[in-house]
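Field: COMPLEX_INPUT
Field: COMPONENT_COUNT = four
Field: RESIDUE_TOTAL = 496
Field: MODE = joint
Values follow.
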Amino acid sequence: MDIPNPLGRRTVNLRRQSKRTYGKRAKELVFLLDLLKISGNRGEVLSTTGRLAGLAGMSQQSISLVLRSLASSGFLAKQHSKNGERIFLTSKAYDRIAQELAGVSLPAIRDHLERRELVVTGTLFTGKGEGAYYVSQKEYSRQMHQRLGFVPYPGTMNLRLNGFEDVNKILLLHSLHPIKIEGFTTHERTFGDVFCYDVEIAGGPKIYLVRSERTSYDLTVVELISDVYLRKALRVEDGDTVRFSFFV
Amino acid sequence: MDIPNPLGRRTVNLRRQSKRTYGKRAKELVFLLDLLKISGNRGEVLSTTGRLAGLAGMSQQSISLVLRSLASSGFLAKQHSKNGERIFLTSKAYDRIAQELAGVSLPAIRDHLERRELVVTGTLFTGKGEGAYYVSQKEYSRQMHQRLGFVPYPGTMNLRLNGFEDVNKILLLHSLHPIKIEGFTTHERTFGDVFCYDVEIAGGPKIYLVRSERTSYDLTVVELISDVYLRKALRVEDGDTVRFSFFV
DNA sequence: ATTACTAAGTGACGAGTAT
DNA sequence: TATACTCGTCACTTAGTAA
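Field: COMPLEX_OUTPUT
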């Protein structure tokens, strides 16, 4: 009791946990957010560590490490399957995200947005021909002619996005002014709504990014349409990098 | 033209920018978010690097570095003043945040929240007596008696939060079920609404966290009230660490 | 008081490789 | 194929100190 701690403090300068905590917290949070986003807010992702590595711009080893670390912290559950891992966000992950995002006001952010061009980069690949099937539907084609100003070439150009930042930009695009093509029903089946977004390729023909309401959601893939055969017009082939842009 | 690149790719495996990009992106984003949050979404913070260091759990030097790096990337503007720096988020920062948050659905997150206890840690300090002034107002006191079940001791216990994570938790608390104490007007001045949040201290008396609608917003400080003199009841003094909790 | 530079320590990252 | 381990490297952090 004599000569107590000179400042009368019980806990002096309570040093935060360990070192490098902030970077760790940040990486954890952003990774969880990225997973949530590419899952389309469903909180369930089926992917390989290699693929995630590509998106994150990290090595496969590091992704493996990150996933295991997040899993052991209880933020996610993994299920090993032969072609990748199935990853589930736990409610602890949602808690974490909710905590971090609690104080940010989305409207306040929107108020400060500047109009500017966002550039997205993707790698061209050949899809399963679904795009062509859809775009060829007379009713879609008719409405597109009316709303977009051209009859679409019967096929879409598929790009696989190269990083989470590109995925983010696409998600931002999704939140913007789409041109809605109404779904319809034939005697065979029902076709859902399709959303078209005004994007552009420097020096290329007029294009739109199309997104089907109910496509088997892979948010890391985008489809572009035009009135011409884009691969030819742009002289690109599978594996080539294609850049397009839009304004926020 | 002969023997072209074997895979027919123009850009093979487009390696992401440089190394360690992800961690950097994450830290940048989270730091911007943290600044936005402690500014109460105003995008303007007046603080010293040392104080931010405390909140972030990093050294003063690192904060200095981070701030300069963010400034040179155009995410924020700094104004040096004799007692700290005034930091402004630029619209580029808002763009960045908007981009990252574009694809996350807040309702989807809330759906997955688990009910659990959040513990907040703060350091006791002596305020300017404003809390006492407010709580002593008859009208506040009367309403508190009615709504909270006790007549508040004429004084508040001020805690300075020790880290961004605690700030986040408080912001989450703010988004919850407050008990609203109506503002009123005397012949002298107008008193704004006050919000009370149900929190608890293990082994201590019933307490509420109070937040004035119009307090000179320092989100890193919280005020607690009870019907007794809390410093005595809890046997704590300036500089001591106090822990309280609430349920999400 | 502040913020910022330098130098040194260490923890994160990825290449190689095992499974 | 897939994920995960080892280990050398280097980028980030901080202590010390200058401004």
